[in-house]
Amino acid sequence: MMNFIFDNPTKLLFGTGKLSELHNEVMPGKKALLLTSAGSSHMTNGSFDKVTEELRLAGAEYVHLGNVVENPLKENCEEAGRFARENGCDFIVALGGGAVLDSSVPVSIMATNDGDLWDYVSGGTGKGLMAPNQPLPIITVATSSGTGSEMNEWGVICKEDTNEKIGMGDRRCKPVIAVVDPVYMTTVPAKYTAYQGFDALFHNTEVMMSTSLNVLSEAVALSAIGNIYKYLPRAVANGNDIEAREHVAYASTMAGITMQLTSTTAQHSMEHAMSAYHRNLQHGAGLIIISKEFAQFFIDRHACDERFIRMARVMGYPESNDPQDFVKALVKLQEDCGVADLKMSDYGFDKSECMTLAKAARALQGGLYAANPCETSDEDIAGIFERSYK
User: Where are the alpha helices (DSSP H) in the chain?
Assistant: First the structure.
């Protein structure tokens, strides 16, 4: 608990109005690849115009590429890397939600390195090579609250032909600057606010369950969990509630820090397998679907009772001495946010897939299984999928 390494050089500009201060920072280059999603949210929320203004005030040029899709694709990251190289970009500004922030890592690698992106992916069919050339520096501007990727060097990328969805990272890809300004999060629809908020929640609850929990990651994670429990229902109910948006954004950004201190668990491996096989499944929605039974598995085995109790105490049960209170609080939060009735069948899953998903979860991101608070076999994981199935 008292041993940890914290290595994060990212300068964080956090809070209402902070995007207006970006031009005061020293840019890590002269010409940016401004990377956005293929959608229009960055136009709707005003962040695109604001970021381009800040780059102009900072004396930096930019070229724009909006090719990132939900559950980001390998081919799109490779395309963006080539685009950055062809246009002489020497840094990246990733503007958007989790998919864009995740994509900035492989894009920064492919902008300066040859070969196939999967050469630099560890796990699955990846070759696990270290990129020989220094990736481009990254500035992240988060416009949603979910992944915490604005603060770390990790991204999750999909390879459709092999049904792989794998986290990849390079410590050289830690962002130079991260901006989290809730002003640009108010247009996120209620459904996606809930999905993203629960993603942030589970980053922190998984850290609390993890075998590598330490004194710092526990303190940060509990703070984040308490903020999500109190403020996420408000943000879902009223997207313009800036106070609620700010507190949920804080919890998400803190997850980006806790995940550098402590690994998440196989809950994330499981969901990555789910959305690798069913790309229409939003990451947060998949996590919500399996979350109750995932926690219940470890509660039934008394694997980390005291940690579940500590989480329950910041989730509406301040006097709790029962780990089952965590599940009660989790279900209530899902009900309060209108996501308690999500069904795997609505996304095209069949119950016969449960063992396939279990094996894929271990094959794609088996490293996270070491963080589980007790041993879990493929049969155990398939059982969690089966009990989660509706």
Answer: 41-44, 47-57, 74-86, 98-110, 190-209, 215-237, 242-261, 266-277, 283-300, 305-313, 324-336, 354-365, 378-388
Nearest to 256 by CA among 34, 21, 98, 41: 98
Question: Considering only CA atoms, which of 103, 122, 314, 319 is closest in space to residue 208?
Answer: 314
What pLDDT is recorded for position 1? 87
Contact 120, 173 (CB under 8 A): no
pLDDT in tens, 151-195: 999 999 999 999 999 999 999 999 999 999 999 999 999 999 999
Q: In which element (H, E) is residue 155 found? A: strand 154-159
CA–CA dist 384, 293 (Å, integer) = 6
* pTM of the model as a whole: 0.96
The pLDDT-based confidence of 148 (bands split at 50, 70, 90) is very high
Under the banding of pLDDT at 50, 70 and 90, the label for residue 313 is very high
Task: Using DSSP bridges, classify how beta strands 177-180 and 164-169 pair: parallel, antiparallel or unpaired.
Answer: unpaired
CA-closest candidate to residue 1, choices 268, 301, 306: 306
With CA atoms as reference, report the closest residue to 50 among 144, 141, 138: 141
Give the strands of the sheet with 11-14, arranged side by side: 11-14, 177-180, 138-142, 91-96, 31-37, 61-68
For 214, the token pair is 């330490």
Q: Structure tokens of 181? A: 């300004």
Quick check: 68 and 37 in contact, CB under 8 A? Answer: yes
Phi, then psi, of 154 in degrees rounded to 5: -110, 150
DSSP letter string, 63-113:
EEEEEE-SS-BHHHHHHHHHHHHHTT--EEEEEESHHHHHHHHHHHHHTT-
> Is 279 exposed, middle or buried, given 0-12, 13-18 or 19+ CB atoms closer than 10 A?
middle
pLDDT tens readout for residues 19-60: 999 999 999 999 999 999 999 999 999 999 999 999 999 999
Tens digits of per-residue pLDDT, 95-118?
Answer: 999 999 999 999 999 999 999 999
Cβ pair 263, 212 in contact under 8 A: yes
Paired with 155 in beta bridges are 168
